[in-house]
Amino acid sequence: MYNVAIAGATGAVGEELLRILEERNFPVKKLVPLASARSVGREVEFKGEVLKVKELTCDVFKEEEIDIAFFSAGGSVSAKFAPCAAEAGAVVIDNTSYFRMDPDVPLVVPEVNPEDIALWNKKGIIANPNCSTIQMVISLAPLHKEFGIKRVDVATYQAVSGAGKKGMEELFEQMRALFNFKLDKKVEEREVFQHQIALNVIPHIDKFMDGGWTKEELKMVNETKKIMHADIQVAPTCVRVPVLRSHSEAITIYCEKDVDVDRAREVLANFEDVKVIDNPEKNEYPMPIIATDTDYVYVGRIRKDLYDPKVLHFFNVADQIRVGAATNAVRIAEKWIE
Ligand code: HSE
Description:
Bound molecules: L-homoserine
Number of helices: 9
Helix content: 25-40%
């Protein structure tokens, strides 16, 4: 049994972590919810018990004898407190981008590169990849093994939950304002997204970097190589859509070998945590309303390119708070204790 801390316990991912640790019956001896000083005293529930949130400090990990510390409170919080947690002897499973590209920190999707968990002890930290990367590499891994992927073009359709609880609230507020259910806010009022998100799509997530690429897009480029241990070229266009909590991705893979749709369906269906929904005759394919609140990456619309026998197209969907964040973190912890 383990003493487990969650830094960022009152956020969207923190709340989901509590649910998933309980659902998966993770061997928790003591659960310590942590947050910044302004959330201290708020209550969270775990296994029917009401727990008061404590302040996240450097000392709390030693005081509470924490074995496993999940961090989901933003990069600057991880930068400040994750090293203290590791120094106090905890394994840190960090959901932020702060340590992801550090060569001494493994970046892990347990279905794809579980062997990298063994490197955790270099810094005491294991990084959880970005949500859009996680669901993509879970669908790429079996196809890479079968056909040898050289290049990936991907367009994402990312849910507002990727921007946290505030992003979800902003979509709700704007929808209410649009439909006049609530008159004290205007649809133009916004804090989280760069433009109105209700009834819109925004081809811009996180800040712009060199060459017109966004930080979100470059995360997919760099993290994919690190997780898959392969020099796969990735060209993403990341788009925010007014969907609540499941990200979708339209993916094209360019392979070394000729692709085969039936074989692609077979290797995907046999891969851990993937479900194939692909029946055009019955209008069956993955959608956010199917994936939401589940732990699977759904894949469908699998088809060969019209021109090049080495090119395959498909569409995937997964719940970004679960598969793309909290469930992946708990799966890492499960492998770590194995
Ligand atoms: N960066 C992602 C998004 C969240 O904005 O959708 C993934 O954790």
